[in-house]
Amino acid sequence: MQITQSKSLFEKAKKYIPGGVNSPVRAFRAVGGDPIFIKRADGAFIYDEDDNSYIELINSWGPMILGHNHPMIKEAIVRALEFGTSYGAPTAKEVEIAELITRMVPSVEKVRMVNSGTEATMSAIRVARGYTGRDKFIKMEGHYHGHGDSFLISAGSGAITMGNPDSPGVTKGTAKDTLLAPYNDLDAIERLVAANKGEIAALILEPVPGNMGLVIPKEGYLQGLRNICTREGIVLIFDEVMTGFRLAKGGAQELFGVTPDMTTLGKIIGGGLPVGAYGGKKEIMEFVSPEGPVYQAGTLSGNPIAMAAGLTMLKHLNQNPQVYTTLNAIGDKLVKGFQTSLDRLGLNYTINHLGSMYSLFFTDQEVYDFESAKKSDTARFGKYFQSMLKRGVYLAPSQYESLFLSTVLTDDLVEKIIQANEESLKEIF
User: Fold this and answer.
1) Catalytic residue among 239, 261, 324, 358
2) What is the pLDDT of residues 36-81, one digit of tens each?
3) For residues 97 and 203, what is the distance between their CA atoms, to the nearest angstrom?
4) pTM for the complete prediction?
5) How far apart, in Å, are the Cα atoms of 39 and each of 47, 49, 297?
6) Which of 136, 139, 267, 374 is catalytic?
């Protein structure tokens, strides 16, 4: 496999872009080698600048549920382009997609569109503080909520991959209001609440974390958080930027039957275009300007192109629940094949799997929080990544990322992935 064009582009990029990339994990620091520069994507495949093709299991970090470059989404974008690219003014599609989101997501009675998941989480915390009159909030170790200052404290994903989990530039004043707890540990939450009685505005978490690899909530954990937050007047925020509309029409909150006070969304509601949103109970969202005193604004919020793509995507998911049956079946088949290979090779590695999300952890221990995820053999994962890449399977370039499946993964493609996995495991051992 030749990647001369990618290598050349990376050398040039490093002259003009920090690290040669616009998002740190893309630099391949955690897996070795040079990053692959992508030229196009279609269906289950991406193609690099050297015209190599790869079966792709990132799907733009989640939103490409129906595969890349779907004709329906593309048509919606082309139609919207005929009328302009940005207005900075209200549009009918904003109203339509907001109404649809409130019908699909159990916790959302009102919603505000923004431009990224980071914007959504930053705004949600601000609104929760304004609503409660409190300053502190709880986040979980290893959960990633974007690159807002308050969240870059024991962040997962790129922060830990780059060996820099607590970013310089985050002030001590900001950090003191962020309280940390291990995921899947209700006792730790109880201790934090007791030590900061009446001071905690919000508790934010990924209900199903995907930024320290995929981790599953223990039985009763999410409901336990709900109970504590209700008792203490704390705003419970589910960050469903990854899981929203992917695990179910109503996201993880529908799947687990636990309704937060606020929800942050992204990716999928733009059909893959830059977008985000935060929403929740009516009485909380009415604190957002101009209806309330908490200010948040953005020229490109509700961008007409993103709204057209997202509305098309959400309508399809809402009207075709069989999408989730298909996704789950693909996930089940892939993970069963992986487990069979591990058993055949005598390897006791951990696979976490839920619906169309999964992670293969290079550890023989159960992975249920950030500390257990960090016991993975990241050096061996890097070798595995490169071995899969040369067999035409493109994974997330970090042990600490969930992988995402799409409906266009046929049985033949799933078998190819399973075969590549077994061959790669054989090679690195």
Assistant:
1) 239
2) 999 999 999 999 999 999 999 999 999 999 999 999 999 999 999 9
3) 27
4) 0.94
5) 6, 5, 33
6) 267
